[in-house]
Amino acid sequence: xxxxxxxxxWRSPEEKNSAVAMQRAFAAGxxxxxxxxxxxxxxxxxxxxxxxxxxxxxxxxxxxxxxYTRIGAPSTLALNIKSDGLVEPLREALAAxxxxxxxxxxxxxxxxxxxxxHGLTVFTRWSEYEPGSRLxxxxxxxxxxxxxxxxVEPRAILSGVDGGKKVAIVSPELHHKPHLDAWRxxxxxxxxxxxxxxxxxxxxxxxxxxANVFFNAVALPSSGAYQxx
Length: 229
Prior knowledge:
This is Phosphodiesterase. With 229 residues, the chain is of the alpha/beta class. It has a single domain, classed as Alpha-Beta Barrel (TIM Barrel), CATH 3.20.20.190. It has helices at 19-27, 61-72, 87-96, 109-117, 154-162, 180-191, 195-198, 208-216; strands at 2-6, 31-39, 42-45, 77-81, 102-105, 123-126, 141-144, 166-170, 201-205. α5 links the parallel β7 and β8. It is globular.
């Protein structure tokens, strides 16, 4: 199973989506989930709407990709697309930096069709509100989320993997819910799967170090990471 650090491996909430959080995640061998928007004609890393008058330099998508190619490859980038109409500049940036281990997700339905038609790697969404769509067949994988439910059910994970698709699971702490019960159930599920099937699974988490120990039995030097609950 592959770990995706949610907005990087951050020590405080202020570090989310920052260059230092990304560098820390990449250095540990983790993939990352991050948010891509546009501002003033450029792609930037930002969960919220960026403001040009704050006087704080933007973390550009180009700088993010340069950091990844320097120390992050071959981990995976999960690119949460926050604005429509970015397919051309995003495709060009990925190609310019030679990035191939990535997927895009969370676009609107019309925008998703555009990413698929341009040949980008797309994950579609599954949740209790999103039971699947006709786009799933063309997608490379699924982003599995749970809003009202306590966590993503194992049957959803198995359904995706059994169909030969990759699946990225949202860990409950991202929604400020307890995570350990989910982790125990998921680990038991993963233990019933073949090694090849487990390689199709990503976990998006605010606790990448803890998750790496829990699921992969790999301990890393302490990062002092902020422990989201």
